[in-house]
Amino acid sequence: MNKISRREFLKFASFTAATLGLSQSVPEVAYALENAAKGQPPVIWIQGASCTGCSVSLLNSVHPDIKEILLEIINLKFHPNISAATGHVAVEAFLGEAEKNKGKFFLVVEGAVPTKDNGVYCSIGEKDGRELYFSEVVKELGEKAKAVIAIGTCAAFGGIPAADPNPTGCVPVTEIIDPKKVLNIPGCPPHPDWFVGSLAHVLLYNELPKTDKFGRPKMFYEGIIHDNCPRRQYFDNSIFAKDFSEPGCLLLLGCKGPVTHSDCPTRLWNGGVNWCIKAGHPCIGCTEPGFPDKTGPIYEKMPEIKLPGISASADTFGEVVGAATAIGLGAHLIGNIATGRLGGHKKKKKEGEE
Q: Domain named Cytochrome-c3 hydrogenase C-terminal: which ranges (predicted)?
């Protein structure tokens, strides 16, 4: 196992403390990550009904990069995409590691879990002369793991494989394993920091981070896209783009930012270069339960928009905002109305008026 210098760890820890929103001091974060570099924690990564996009996203991690993650931060015992072993040798390898590290390893599950017809639609190997189904592996390894990370929306909520009509009976990991043991890291795909940061938190506190009602770590998923969107001013001023060449809020082009929880606007992707809306594309709501059924079609307006105190169809939403009245608009918009930000105009007081 390669060694990491203290200076390298402090550099990484400084970045981690800033980007993960951890209020703890840099030495404490460095201490946690030094423990990881000593071969802890063991990680077994398995894949079911997925496109492997979550693994690909992790490859784009910048601080730390993928080499540091795989060789110096986690002790990766098994990953199907980079495993040298195949067939029964690979199966024996990850099952053996799970038994040897029982109660100590982290299980990372990528992809939804097919359950129809006893899980026959997702076979990941053979054991004792029969097919080994993904559903039974998730259950067996999940019971032995210290904690389970459901990486990506497919694993966390079912995602695309579980979309209607769901012919293989795909379900999220939490329907196979006790939800109290599972940390959901949704996204299609998730940001690398969401995985690495969650793991760093577990190492630091020896417990899962605080989560919302959907099992997502609050430090990454507490806010909604809409609140920090760089196009929010367009929304406040009732400027809505009608096509992708126009400036304006992308709500009418299908943006799901008002109902989507994540820190994409402030974290950015690909090393802090860009993200969906900055690239001119509407948010597709990929971190939410029910994606893609409840957030699709991607480029069509949401049939109903729900914000604090507001419930209006997308067809009439522009009229509601344009009217600039406080009726049904919600507390977070009332301040904009009072100051004149909403609609872009503030009625000038006539001379003598108070």
A: 221-299
Q: Is the pLDDT of residue 187 over 50?
A: yes
Nearest to 49 by CA among 115, 145, 139: 115
170 is known as an active-site residue? no
Q: What is the pTM of this model?
A: 0.78
Catalytic residue among 51, 63, 88, 281: 51
Q: What CA–CA distance (Å, rounded) separates 70 from 178?
A: 28
- How far apart are alpha carbons 256 and 283 in whole angstroms? 5
- Per-residue pLDDT band at 317 (split at 50, 70, 90): very low
Q: Residues 79, 122, 201, 264: which is the catalytic one? A: 264
All domains of the chain in start order, with CATH: 6-220 (3.40.50.700), 225-339 (4.10.480.10)
Has 154 been annotated as catalytic? yes
Catalytic one of 276, 281, 332, 345: 276
Q: Which residues, at least 6 apart from 32, have a Cβ–Cβ distance to it below 8 Å? A: 200, 203, 204
